[in-house]
Amino acid sequence: MNFENTKRAYLLKSNIELYQAFYLFRIISNKNLVYLGSRLALIALKLKFPISRIFRQTIFKQFCAGFKKEDSIKVINRLNKLDVKSYMHYASEGQNSELGMEFNFKKTINTISFSKTTNALPFTVFKATSLGSVSLFEKKNSGVVLNLNEMAAWGRTIDRIQKCCKYAKKLNVKMLIDAEESWVQNAIDEIAEDLMEAFNKEKAYIFTTLQLYRKDRLKYLQELFKKANRKDFSLGIKLVRGAYIEKENKRSMDLGIPSIICKSKEATDINFNNALDYILPRIEQCKLFLGSHCESSILKVTEWMKSNDIPNNYSNIWFSQLYGMADHISFNLAAQGYNVIKYVPYGPVKEVIPYLIRRAEENTSVRSQTPRELKLIKKELKRRKLKELEL
Ligand SMILES: Cc1cc2nc3c(=O)[nH]c(=O)nc-3n(C[C@H](O)[C@H](O)[C@H](O)COP(=O)(O)OP(=O)(O)OC[C@H]3O[C@@H](n4cnc5c(N)ncnc54)[C@H](O)[C@@H]3O)c2cc1C
Fold it and tell me: Using one digit for the tens of pLDDT, what is the confidence trace for 47-58?
């Protein structure tokens, strides 16, 4: 695998778009600027300052496909032409009222219907806490007995989730369930297990997500595999390292309890590799959706496939990256015939700002992939300049 082929990686980007991406990554690699910028953006949003335009022309353009799913189809078709599939998500966050959840439910159902209109959208996704309230998930998670009102609200949450999954299966669209903070995740796991048991009899329609920055997840994976065998259903596993490290560590500090997160990046990597070592020999029963921008994790899988004579387009293995990030991985993998899919968020600028701030913050972290993104964009700009000179 050659991830250095920048011509392939940036085929879809014009020179101007590449320069824009370069300056954007430069800005968001500066921790202080991102900290200040995101606080200001949130204040401006609250005060209803018209900041949408600035976002639309910069970070929104890099990480989001459009305001509506219909606008996003242009992006999706362009990706599809280079054999990169997409899964769409209405990336609005923090709707915690019944009305907001009903709205999110309708958006999820609409996205599933839309996925059926093209072969470019084989998966869809939902975040459980967008379909039920976070406080209810927390209560379920900690085993607190719910009162009558809460029981009714929980019933509505399960009903929304089941309807989404049933509809996805009916339309032959696979469904990913995102993983969230540990204080709601047990409740999500329970739902995901029930859904896999109900819907994954003939094939894996439902994929649960495992965060391998958690020390306990390898054991959980092994138990889940045994359960699936015992109850005769297929497992769909989205494997990620995990996105909530600061929140998790802060919470365990505040509560004075040991952190459930691996003690270092290296320990997370070992845990992640151990999970891959467990899944790969069982790939017939345990479908893998690898959500990662880490080249060595991806190479571990492609090399295993090669040494086991598994064709690159083997349908039980998918590689996934976020839209606007790690294009050198996505497009170079796709050029070799691997199954590649981008997470493509969309929504009105104002509603996706929290998602965009998280992307920016992720790119400021010390070990982030940003220097790699910058180096590759620079290499491609140089290659294009040389080509022009040759002509
Ligand atoms: C398609 C896709 C879907 C995703 N879905 C989810 C999801 O549902 N839920 C979710 O939580 N995340 C999700 N993520 C985000 C993911 O968990 C990671 O945060 C992100 O992808 C970075 O990890 P990496 O494997 O790409 O690469 P790397 O850059 O190699 O790893 C960075 C990750 O390593 C871990 N890490 C870093 N420093 C330390 C440390 N000091 N100690 C312990 N661990 C450390 C953290 O998890 C960090 O995010 C998704 C990512 C992708 C690409």
Answer: 777 777 777 778
> Using an 8 Å Cβ cutoff, are 327 and 379 in contact?
no
Q: How far is the CA of 286 from the centre of ligand 1 (A)?
A: 21
| Residue 381 domain-assigned (yes or no) | no
Ligand 1 binding pocket includes 369 (Cβ within 6 Å): yes
What is residue 318's three-state secondary structure? strand
The span from the CA of 79 to the CA of 332, in Å, is 12
Question: Is residue 374, in this structure, part of any structural domain at all?
Answer: no
Give the Å distance between the CA of 294 and the centre of ligand 1.
9
Assigned domain for 168 exists: yes
Domain that holds residue 130: 64-360
Q: Whose CA is nearest to atom 15 of ligand 1?
A: 243
Question: Does any ligand 1 atom lie closer than 6 A to the CB of residue 192?
Answer: no
Residue 195: how many other CB atoms lie within 10 Å: 25
158 located within any domain: yes
Specify the number of domains making up the chain.
1
CA dist 38 and 55 (Å) reads 11
Query: For residues 92 and 382, what is the distance between their CA atoms, to the nearest angstrom?
Result: 37
Cβ–ligand 1 contact at 321 (below 6 Å): yes
User: Which atom of ligand 1 is least distant from the CA of 178?
Assistant: 8
Check which CATH number belongs to the domain holding 326 and give it.
Answer: 3.20.20.220
What pTM does this model have? 0.95
Q: Ligand 1: which of 208, 211, 241, 289 to mutate, most ligand atoms within 8 Å of CB?
A: 241
pLDDT tens, 33-76? Answer: 777 777 787 777 777 777 777 777 788 889 999 988 888 999 99
